[in-house]
Amino acid sequence: MKTLRTIVALSVIAGLAQINGSALACAACYGQSDSPMAQGMNAGIFALLAVVVTMWCGAATFFVFIARRASTVAKSEQKPKL
To answer: In the chain, how many domains are there?
Structure first.
């Protein structure tokens, strides 16, 4: 069993050593920032950023709603009931 792990580990290391350096870099990192791959990556980043901003705004809106609701309830409890 130990020999099998050693053989697999050495095979993986040998395979990784054969990979060309340019295959490890994306279009933006390799210097072609105007390629379609880089434009797609930028679009993906902006889409994820839009999702995160939307979620933060939704959470902030919810907490503002809760604070206003609590304020309204507190004011209604202070008024004397006739």
So the answer is: 1
